[in-house]
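Chapter review. Work through the record for Bifunctional metallophosphatase/5'-nucleotidase before attempting the end-of-chapter questions.
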Amino acid sequence: MSATPHKTRRRILAAVAGLTTAGALVAAMPAGAQESGHGHGHGQSRTVDVQLLSFNDLHGNLEPPAGSAGRVTHTNEDGTTRTIDAGGVEYLATHLREARKDSKYSVTAAAGDMVGASPLLSGLFHDEPTIEALNKLDLDVTSVGNHEFDEGAKELARLQNGGCHKTDGCYVEGEGFQGADFPYLAANVTKEKTGRPLLDPYFIWKKNGVRIGFIGVTLEGTPDIVTAEGVKGLKFGDEVETINKYTKILERKGVKSIVALIHEGGAPASSSYNYNCDSPGPGNGVSGPIVDIAKKVSPQVDALVTGHTHQAYACSIPDPSGKPRTVTSAASFGKLYTDTTLTYDRRTNDIVRTAVASANHVVTRDVPKAEDMTRLIQRWNTLAAPIASRPVGFISADIDNPFDAPEKPLGNLITDAQLEGLAPADKGGAQLAIMNPGGIRAGLVHKATGSEGDGVVTYGEAFTVQPFTNMMNVVDLTGAQLITTLKQQVSGANQAVPKILQVSKGFTYTLDLTKTGADRVVDSSVKLNGEAIDPAKTYRVAMNEFLAGGGDGFPVLKEHRNKLVGASDLEMLNAYLAAHSSASAPLAPPATGRITVVK
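Structure tokens for Bifunctional metallophosphatase/5'-nucleotidase:
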């Protein structure tokens, strides 16, 4: 589990032509270049600074994410804010390579969801393009995330080890897929039959006598947010218990410097990437599952690189001994990277925790593109073009998918499309439709992303919105089960981080955020076409197969009856766009107001 086995195919990174000078980038926290302290034999300094570069939740976004999905918020010194266009692997490569230039010791790690729910450029090819890009980025190690299991354990093993896809084969004649040069870590994912880890649980990075252990886990609740087929035969263990177990194993191997890569995260009090989440005290400005995890993970772990929630933070959350410990997340889609300095003591072989410093940095698009990434994107785009560029509809303005809004214009469009497509009696007789917010991966942007022209929605853009191609189901639910469904948005598994379902036109209710848990849903406000939902009555409800299986923390939906399977969610969206828009009469963004929010 050292660096060697996974580096046999490592590309030797050539100098990037036209890279920015050091002055062209925002200065990072001190990282990597310094050796300091007292002598320690043969002229070596006692301590060395190791630069840890990290990111998370790339989701196959090789090209710059469009619209709000490709922007980050910066808070200025005077308290005002501004947005910055960010992301794209051509720019991420340039920024990472520039950051490494003056660092004698630099390691690059990630915290899961590198693939899955990807735009068409990667998703169409089962994310082989993203693995290629990550190899070129010189990624050293990553944990798995829940989306690494979207296509099941065998497909994840193929991404790790290489080989052509079992159904689609090889995409380029004479060229086989080589797999990842870096190890995927899955310490808390075991095979039910044997109890053995699915993949490597840890990885030891080594350079000039410096050794740092990485332990990788995904969230224990992965089975709740992945299709049953994707996690079949697997068991997902507790994050804290697993990390603490392998921390002891690493220590017995003499590895005392340890970083945990955790695909679970938190929510900072501000959406600005440069928000100080250590104000007024360490970790006070962040909440969510990662806080409880961080407070329980062994003090022997020196830093936590996290993900899953697509948020940006670099906090100091106290460990079980009360000592502040760095916990970071770099938003999503390659818009940020985190630069952390780990000061390594050669005498103790441990990290000097008081010297750990970390900050998030924007992957701006005002730097030269990495030429090797441009070639990679062009090569795969050529293969995808006949499918990706086909027009499927027209819009008059951006149809947004704001991350922090309970009701989203694009969510309304999608559920309306599902209701219309499944309302006919022979299609299921749906009376309403519901959609999980995590299944909507991007907004629809009016500005052209290629040569298609402004307002044109291409198949590739629609695919980016609905990349899972989940099959639609129409099922029987009682009114009582419907109301319970709404309550499960803000209680149980979803209490800490609510998942507000998107609902079709005619279905309305009030969400009272002044209350807590299930009480946030006002029972008497739940109506269909102006009539109160009758708890005893049966309704026909459209939803994707993931939700129908109880996914995303909605166990009541598994109690459905009389299921009818329809076309995929993507087909529903494309059919609706075709029926309701044209070049001369583009579709306007749907109005909101289905969910009344009381604050």
